[in-house]
Amino acid sequence: MTKPSQTVHVFDAEDIWVTSGANQGDGLGPAETCEPGDIYQLDRQAMPRKLILAQSGAQAEVVEGSEFGAQGDPLILVARHLMMTPDGDTVDVLLIRHDPQGRHFALPLSPIAPRLDYTLLEASDDPGEVQLVDLVCVAFTTGTMITLAGGAQMPIEQLKAGDRVLTRDNGPQPVQLVAKATMRALGSFAPVVISAGVLGNEGDLVVSPHHRVFLYRRGKQKLADTSEILVQAKHLVDDENVWRREGGFVDYYALVFERHEIIYAEGIPVESLMVSEATLSLLPEELGTEISARLPDLAHRPHFGTEATRELLDRIGREQIFRKRKP
């Protein structure tokens, strides 16, 4: 049986280097060589390298088509680094050793950018059971209630392809695919909890940090230039009404439709998975192949709406968005 393969993009470990701190000038290295508090940056000239890998249990290997290595070369997960940006977001960076060459590569589990400071919070030589082939754009957690075509609600883990879900713009639409991934609930993978009632949601809405909630405000209540805005869950965090839930493992589920849709979770509008070349490259091969066959254009048009930044929410105040929590 062929192992599922996964395409990711990695950097030379030396391209993420200490600009200020005890190890100034050094590139990202094993946990024992790193010093919490050091500030790292991604080199401006850094170029990502395509790595196609297959993983079975804790073992990973290079697959033909990668920009380095040869088919079957072993890959060793050496360390996991937890870093924080100036605005408080956290990023996990995995350190991978390509055994035949003895070279180290850095795999960020969230996007990173040059000219931005990343402060090292923790470096661990026990990264845990990271399933690299499950780096998939996912959204909801187990138990999230999704509104069906007839108005009834169903836990997301019970949904299957063909079930008809109510969408805001296109009425009832059949689910094309339900994708699932189990992740460690740490750093950028720790889910965000939106307490019941805060946005009008009937129960706690627990989603991945980058998942976007749809808000509609008009007239004097309008929050931006348009009446419709999309807000990433992580930008809503105030540690009272909305917070990160870290620790253990979390099952994430994504719903794929023929279009990028606004659906209803816990009674409020949120986005479905937007399929594009970028998201397809993060899916295990079998899922990517299935989506490509069902959605041959490979690209959804994103739902129209202004993307609300953390700065916008800081300026207008989250209290302008939040409602009174349910007791």
Automatic annotation (TrEMBL):
Pfam families, per database record: Hint_2
InterPro entries reported in the protein's UniProt record: Hedgehog/Intein_dom (IPR028992), Hint_dom_sf (IPR036844)
Protein name: Hedgehog/Intein (Hint) domain-containing protein
Entries under SUPFAM superfamilies matching the protein: Hedgehog/intein (Hint) domain
Superkingdom to which the source organism belongs: Bacteria
Domain named Hedgehog/Intein (Hint): residues: 139-274
Taxonomic lineage from the root: Bacteria, Pseudomonadati, Pseudomonadota, Alphaproteobacteria, Rhodobacterales
